[in-house]
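hi! just following up on the protien thing from before. the input was this:
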Amino acid sequence: MSIGDVTTLLQRGILEVLLLAAPLLLSALVVGLVVAILQATTSIQEQTLTFVPKVMIILLVLGLLGGWMFSSLGDYTIQLFRMIPSMAR
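and the predicted 3d structure came back as:
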């Protein structure tokens, strides 16, 4: 296995992590911004107010996209296991 193969493997792994984490992080970011704007306009400065909506939206996104996430991660893992014999040479 060459340096190029290892680099490609690491790039694919990082891309997979980004693809799986992006929907959760972006949805939490959007909810956080909306709650922050509401807090600024209403002068409510409760720190725990952002926690519950973020948890709820993350659970909703996991419920909607969880199947795709596990399928994508499973496919990537199967590809890695199929590469093991060629790495041992």
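DSSP finds two helices and no strands in the chain.
The radius of gyration is 19 Å.
cheers
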